[in-house]
Amino acid sequence: KAGVTQTPRYLIKTRGQQVTLSCSPISGHRSVSWYQQTPGQGLQFLFEYFSETQRNKGNFPGRFSGRQFSNSRSEMNVSTLELGDSALYLCASSLSWTGTNSPLHFGNGTRLTVT
Amino acid sequence: AQTVTQSQPEMSVQEAETVTLSCTYDTSESDYYLFWYKQPPSRQMILVIRQEAYKQQNATENRFSVNFQKAAKSFSLKISDSQLGDAAMYFCAYSKKGAQKLVFGQGTRLTINP
């Protein structure tokens, strides 16, 4: 079974631009979460989606948004990029939203560099 | 708000030896989950072990075991017979029961010396 697939693997953008990252969950998984990983702040929760609905959102500005499609694939968008948005963005999927018996399976991440 | 603290930024151990990574957390919830994740240079976070707070028995997965002290809010990971492939960043994480959101610690970089 294929794992969580994130594309692209690497991205370089300029301040002020916008970017879209993609995540394809494991087949059959309906829940997708996104995390930002930086050396200074560590791993921080961005959003969680289940059945195309955002179930939970972290403490990030409105420039960060996401969505989930009917096939459970998810995208996250960052508008008006800032230097501080440079990070590894990790996507994780699981079978269910409750999480009680469904551990998160992570992708390899997208490394975003903002110059 | 829940917090997770890993006080050891770096640890090293000789191959085949045992090492223990520390983690403490803070929560007002009574039912929750605790996890240890491993992140090798490939960047993919891999679940090592999971503990349900209402279960008294410490979780074990082959060479990996935890020491869960609920009253002390402590959750340490013991790696026995360390192997070169165990070298990675290790993250302790917390989630409330019924929620997918993970709260991570800052991580411990584990080096295995041959």
Structure write-up:
The complex is a heterodimer of chains A (115) and B (114). By secondary structure, chain A is mainly β. In chain A, the strands form two sheets. In chain A, strands 2, 4, 5, 6, 9, 10 and 11 form a seven-stranded mixed β-sheet that branches. Chain A has a four-stranded antiparallel β-sheet with strand order 1-3-8-7, with no helix packed on it. The N and C termini of chain A lie far apart (37 Å). Chain A has no helices and eleven strands. In chain A, strand 4 (31-38) and strand 5 (42-50) form a beta hairpin. With 114 residues, chain B is mostly beta strands. Helix content of chain B is 0%, strand content 53%. Chain B is built from no helices and twelve strands. Chain B has strands at 3-5, 10-14, 19-21, 24-26, 32-39, 46-52, 60-61, 64-69, 74-79, 88-96, 103-104, 108-113. In chain B, a hairpin with a 6-residue loop joins strand 5 and strand 6 (46-52). Chain B is globular.
